[in-house]
């Protein structure tokens, strides 16, 4: 297995700061803004962005939630093992909000499609945008593109993108792993 570094911890942090600045630049009325991290790993990115907005830019009049898309996935019944659902935590009114759906890696677009279906159960937002740390741009199955992207990565089908989070993995970093080479 070969592991190629895409973002070092320092680059990771700089990228997150840039994404936060882009959100703040595009959303002047923060009381209408809601950040929604997709379970399981998009929540780390959403939480980190929310924390940076509060600590570095002294804004906290936005909403933050977590969305589980397990039962909205189009491959839900195709797995031999039952899928483990995560917790959805949306304790704000979605109706009329400007939502930013947040996930760590945009690959085929199917997770985002599932998120769009799932969020409809909570109401009708005024606008939905997509933020992703890593955009695997040549792997899309659906016509979905991010409004905010940290880095574009061109990875072959035999490669996977691994995002490590300090909160869960003990380090921040992004790697491309070639699964064919032992």
From TrEMBL:
<feature type="domain" description="Phosphoribosyltransferase">
    <location>
        <begin position="6"/>
        <end position="153"/>
    </location>
</feature>
<dbReference type="InterPro" id="IPR029057">
    <property type="entry name" value="PRTase-like"/>
</dbReference>
<dbReference type="Pfam" id="PF00156">
    <property type="entry name" value="Pribosyltran"/>
</dbReference>
<dbReference type="InterPro" id="IPR000836">
    <property type="entry name" value="PRTase_dom"/>
</dbReference>
<dbReference type="InterPro" id="IPR050137">
    <property type="entry name" value="PyrR_bifunctional"/>
</dbReference>
<protein>
    <submittedName>
        <fullName>Bifunctional protein pyrR</fullName>
    </submittedName>
</protein>
